[in-house]
Specification:
CATH superfamily of the domain at 36-163 and 209-241: Vaccinia Virus protein VP39
Structural class: alpha/beta
Strand content: 15-25%
Largest sheet: 7 strands, mixed
Shape: globular
Helix content: 40-55%
Oligomer: single chain
Distance between the termini: 35 Å
Number of helices: 10
Bound molecules: S-adenosylmethionine
Number of strands: 7
Length: 242
């Protein structure tokens, strides 16, 4: 197992994310009934809203958001995906080549709490389904938000697509039953990685509500926070400005 570079402290979840890549994409497709692809496309559109020239996909994993951005962006947009898991990045590079966008993107290994980029460099930072990992019970949550703020230009946007908590109590109960009764067993069966999918179940069912995420972003100094619920609020897109 490789060590993430420039880590100031031991990184939560790193071992798990070096283990899950072989079946990561297929499990995502199954447990979201294929909807995750649409959610990342919508996030890519939100990333491109203000015609950014420099975009970072934070916790890019196997590269789906990066690839969606590359497909929709102009050729002069600089698109970078960063992740601390080398196996995830290897998959991302293969997928970018297959998608015909390898020349438009670069994938780099690095940690969210010590980003290897200069201050005020990016017009947009996008993050798909890694915000929960970087904030839920993560002692380094503040460090991650401070790093995003540091690398964003003033007026730059942080676009977050992440699982959420449906507002309606009935739908929320159904969603939690779905995660415990379907997502967890299928994830464990297909990935053969029980630890990873137990963590997924716990973190999804207990993750913060949109207003708690809003408070967290506000406390970190972000402004103009908007939220778009998707699938009755089981997922959603936050957009905020530095
Ligand atoms: C649930 S996956 C999401 C991957 C991808 N963005 C997607 O939409 O499928 C979370 C990703 O965040 C990465 N990650 C978690 N903590 C990180 C950190 N501190 N620094 C860099 N990457 C991190 C993991 O390696 C993993 O690839």
């Amino acid at each position: 197992m490789e060590n993430p570079p420039r880590s100031p402290t031991p990184q939560p979840l790193h071992g798990m994310f070096t283990a899950v890549p072989p079946r990561y994409d297929i499990v995502n497709r199954i447990i979201t009934l294929g909807l995750d692809s649409r959610w990342r496309r919508l996030a890519a559109e939100a990333c491109l809203d203000n015609n950014p020239k420099t975009i970072l996909d934070l916790g890019c994993g196997t590269g789906d958001l990066t690839i969606n951005i590359a497909r929709a962006a102009g050729k002069d947009t600089e698109i970078t995906g960063i992740d601390y898991s080398q196996p995830m990045l290897e998959k991302a590079r293969q997928k970018a080549t297959k998608a015909g966008v390898a020349k438009l993107v670069r994938f780099t290994q690095g940690d969210a709490t010590a980003l290897p980029f200069p201050d005020v460099y990016f017009d947009c930072v996008g993050i798909s389904f890694a915000f929960r990992n970087l904030t839920y019970k993560n002692p380094l949550a503040q460090a991650h938000l401070a790093e995003v703020k540091r690398v964003l230009k003033p007026g730059g946007r942080y676009v977050i697509v992440e699982s959420s908590q449906p507002k309606n109590p009935l739908i929320r109960t159904f969603f939690q039953l779905y995660v415990r009764g379907f997502v967890a067993p299928v994830g464990i069966l297909v990935s053969r990685n029980p630890g990873a999918y137990r963590y997924l179940t716990e973190s999804i069912t207990r993750f913060y509500s949109p207003s708690e995420v809003r408070d967290m972003l506000k406390a970190a100094g972000f402004r103009d926070i908007s939220y778009r619920p998707l699938l009755f609020g089981a997922t959603g897109i936050h957009v905020t400005i530095k």
